[in-house]
Amino acid sequence: MSAPAAAAPAAPPRRTLLQRLRQRHLPGARWLVIAAPYLWLLLFFAIPFLIVLRISFAEQAISSPPYSNLLDYTDGVLTLKFTLQNYLALVRDNQYIEAYWGSIKIAGISTLLTLLIGYPMAYVIARLSPSARNIAMMLVVLPSWTSFLIRVYAWIGILDSNGVLNRTLLALGLIEQPLRILYTPIAAYIGIVYCYLPFMVLPLYATLVKQDHRLLEAAYDLGARPWKAFATITLPMSRPGIVAGCMLVMIPAVGEFVIPEMLGGPDTLMIGRVLWGEFFNNRDWPAASAVAIAMLLLLMVPILIFNRYQQRQLAGGQA
User: Distance of alpha carbon 129 from its chain centroid, rounded?
Assistant: First the structure.
């Protein structure tokens, strides 16, 4: 009787980059890997933020760049030229107040509309078969592969007085004259909802697809109606996806510039348009920097709320 063939040795587990660097005894390899993301944040966030913060405390000047130096060395005396007028103007000038309020209002309403449209879409997609689910998600993400400007510009041809929408409504006899939609706040809402809809659908889908359908079946067996089971089981369990989707839509929508500029018209005043005007039209870089810093601090509020919500969720899960 021949001896049984020896089993082939198992392939060694694949080592990570940090393990390979350690094996080669490279000094500081661990700290290099850990420091990489912090270096990225330092170069592309912290340093630009500090530059903008410095400019916000300067004064407008007819020079290149168009702002004064914070430190002035004249006749052997070093003086600090520090002003808060740029920040005081944010609360004194009605244009800035209306722009901030308009940004929050438009972003909030757009987020709510995106949620009302995105939740049914994600709910239906999560209950399709795996093959149909992949196709549906591909259709949701596919428009994002094209240029953002092209997608926004396409709505001009749809919402124009002689556009596709008005011609269709006129042909169906639903209206007698073209509707004025383009260059109104309504067009800005449509553009924001369309462009940011995938950012709402994706986190909602990721939450809904992982839910256990046996919980709904148990609720039906106990006599719960579909809407009651949805309100008590599906909706509370999808709360993390709702919060994440609202954050992904609300934060960039507050500072949106392209959509209100191309679709909203002069009646749609948002802080992104004011910021652009101060930088490039008025060349008032200190005022524009103060607007940018204030907008960043404003956007930190929902981020802090979201982090607090996540901490409570983790604490509740561990308890």
Answer: 30
3-state secondary structure (DSSP) of residue 53? helix
Q: How far apart are CA 60 and CA 28, in angstroms?
A: 46
193 and 103 fall within a common domain: yes
The Cα-based distances of 266 to 85, 132, 253 in angstroms read 27, 43, 18
Q: Residue 174 has what DSSP assignment?
A: S
| Tokens 């939450």 belong to residue | 207
Range of the domain at 266: 93-283
Q: Which has the minimum average pLDDT: 14-28, 122-136, 295-309?
A: 14-28
> Could you report the per-residue pLDDT of 147-159, keeping only the tens digit for each?
999 999 999 999 9
Torsion angle of C-alpha atoms 282, 286, 287, 289, degrees rounded to 10: 110
**Same-domain status, 72 and 108:** no
Q: How far is CA 127 from CA 33, 217, 241, in A?
A: 41, 14, 16
Summary mean pLDDT of the chain = 87
Joined tokens for residue 105: 């209002």
Work out how many domains the chain is built from and give that number.
2
> What band does 46 get if pLDDT is binned at 50, 70 and 90?
very high
Q: Are residues 137 and 214 in the same domain?
A: yes
Is 298 within the bounds of a domain?
Answer: no
Question: Cα separation of 268 and 184, whole Å?
Answer: 7
CA nearest 107: which of 240, 276, 295, 283? Answer: 295
For residues 2 and 68, give the distance between their C-alpha atoms in angstroms, rounded to a whole number.
91
**79, containing H or E segment:** strand 77-80
CB 271 within 8 A of CB 100: yes
Tell me if the pTM is above 0.85.
Answer: no
Q: Is the residue at 4 inside a domain?
A: no
pLDDT of residue 18: 54
Q: Are residues 232 and 192 in the same domain?
A: yes
- What share of residues in the chain are helix, strand, coil (percent, to 5)? 70, 5, 25
For residue 220, which of 211, 233, 237 has the smallest C-alpha distance?
Answer: 233
